[in-house]
């Protein structure tokens, strides 16, 4: 039997993670946070002091690293048996992830790891190239976006809520720079996959977005 897949692609900060997790929980489907795979590789490389342009060493790490994901309420990630969850969301990790993700050899090495998540009863896959490269035959495809200003503001509020000092202009600029790298790279750039429904979440609440995506799956 074919395992149904719902792909949710889009730029960073569009709300993909929150929406994907909520939809997966609701449908009782599996969840792939593909960004966390690139982030884990970035953490492994930084830990081992590997140059982020050293493709040979990066692919060696990518093919041997052992990742475990536990998703009860929040996602927990273990790299070679050690929990790395607190490191996943930092700006340093995000930036390094976007650099290692630009290498086609790295992406090819991580492809199968991502495809292995396609298990019954279904999969919600969140990333940049889920509907275009990893699961091009997915039954449901969403492209979730929001303006860079709105995404910057959301990130800023998250940081302030956590008591972390933040600068809105700088965050928005970093988001724009990340968008540029993710959309301009030669391999699997961030793009609207063919057949995807586009949702601009700039003026929507997170609950409205979740409902919209659930309607798409439930109304087939
Ligand atoms: O979604 P995220 O912010 O956790 O992703 C971190 C980086 O990983 C992002 O800058 C681009 C890269 N990425 C990717 O190239 N392809 C994916 N499917 C997911 C993430």
Give structural notes:
By secondary structure, the chain is an alpha/beta fold. It has one domain: Rossmann fold (3-Layer(aba) Sandwich). The protein has ten helices and eight strands. It has a five-stranded parallel beta sheet. Strand 4 and strand 5 form a beta hairpin. It is globular and about 50 Å long. The mean pLDDT is 93. The structure holds 2'-deoxycytidine-5'-monophosphate.
What is this structure's SSE topology?
Layout (H helix, E strand, L loop, with lengths): L4 E5 L6 H12 L2 E4 H14 L7 H10 L2 E5 L3 E5 L2 E2 L1 H4 L2 H10 L3 H12 L7 E5 L2 H5 L5 E6 L2 H14 L6 H17 L12 E4 L5 H13 L2
Parallel strand pairs: 1-6, 1-7, 2-6, 7-8
Antiparallel strand pairs: 3-4, 4-5
Helix pairs in contact: 1-10, 2-5, 3-6, 8-9
The chain binds 2'-deoxycytidine-5'-monophosphate.
């Amino acid at each position: 039997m074919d395992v149904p897949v719902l792909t949710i692609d889009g730029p960073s900060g569009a709300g993909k993670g929150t929406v994907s997790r909520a939809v997966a929980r609701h449908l009782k489907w599996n969840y792939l946070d593909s960004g966390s795979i690139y982030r884990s590789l970035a953490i492994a490389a930084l830990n081992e002091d590997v140059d982020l342009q050293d493709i040979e060493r990066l692919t060696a790490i990518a093919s041997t690293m052992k990742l475990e994901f536990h998703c009860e309420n929040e996602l927990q990630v273990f790299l070679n048996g050690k929990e790395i969850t607190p490191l996943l969301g930092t700006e340093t990790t995000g930036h390094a992830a976007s650099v290692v993700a630009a290498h086609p050899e790295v992406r090819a090495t991580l492809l199968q790891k991502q495809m292995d998540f396609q298990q019954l009863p279904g999969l919600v896959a969140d990333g940049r190239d889920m509907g275009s490269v990893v699961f091009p035959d997915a039954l449901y495809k969403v492209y979730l976006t929001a303006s860079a200003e709105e995404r910057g503001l959301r990130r800023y509020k998250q940081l302030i809520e956590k008591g972390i000092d933040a600068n809105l202009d700088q965050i928005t600029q970093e988001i724009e720079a990340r968008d540029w790298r993710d959309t301009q790279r030669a391999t699997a750039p961030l793009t609207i996959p063919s057949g995807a429904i586009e949702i601009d979440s700039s003026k929507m609440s997170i609950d409205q977005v979740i409902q919209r995506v659930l309607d798409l799956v439930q109304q087939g």
